[in-house]
Specification:
It is built from no helices and 12 strands. With 162 residues, the protein is mostly beta strands. The chain has one domain. The chain has a 4-stranded antiparallel sheet with strand order 1-2-3-4, with no helix packed on it. It has a 4-stranded antiparallel sheet with strand order 5-6-7-8, with no helix packed on it. A hairpin with a 5-residue loop joins strand 1 and strand 2. The protein is globular. The model has no long low-confidence stretch (mean pLDDT 82).
């Protein structure tokens, strides 16, 4: 089973595909070119694991970067990663929180991404619950090869109602 909706770059040259059923341990995602070449597969990438699924997929306006959350049952409950189409590099967006989940919100422009962090969770959070003790957003700038991040702005932490 694959996604019903294609998560393609603005020019359609690269697509993120979730493959398989999340109820089985072999589901994974791939980043593939228009010609069908697999640029990255989560079940063979050292920083990911079998059972990874890409969510909140957001392409930069120029299509050079794609940001997404990876949901797994392992070390990344929901972490944000950025993949560079040009350098074929995958990088996890780091945060200073220990017990957190992140997701890309939107691209501000070709090199600035807004990411939301919610914490702490203790491994029991879902998007349906207001279980986060606090939330905040960061605007980060991506540059270089290898990819580097610089935090430009961090919002104050908000504390959602339980």
């Amino acid at each position: 089973m694959e996604d019903r909706v294609a998560h393609s770059s603005p020019d359609g040259s690269v697509t993120v595909r979730n493959i398989g059923d999340t109820a089985t341990p072999d589901h994974h995602f791939q980043i593939v070119s228009r010609s069908g070449d697999v640029l990255l597969t989560s079940d063979k990438h050292l920083d990911l694991e079998t059972g990874s699924f890409a969510e909140s997929i957001a392409w930069s306006p120029d299509g050079h970067f794609v940001a997404f959350s990876v949901r797994t049952s392992g070390p990344y409950i929901r972490d944000t990663f950025v993949y560079s189409v040009r350098s074929k590099q995958l990088v996890r967006v780091l945060t200073e929180d220990d017990d957190y989940q992140t997701r890309p919100v939107r691209w501000h422009d070709n090199h600035r991404l807004i990411v939301q962090t919610e914490a702490p969770f203790g491994g029991m959070a879902t998007e349906d619950k207001e279980s986060a003790s606090y939330r905040y957003r960061r605007t980060i700038r991506l540059s270089g090869s290898p990819i580097q991040f610089e935090t430009l702005y961090t919002t104050p932490r908000t504390h959602p109602k339980s």
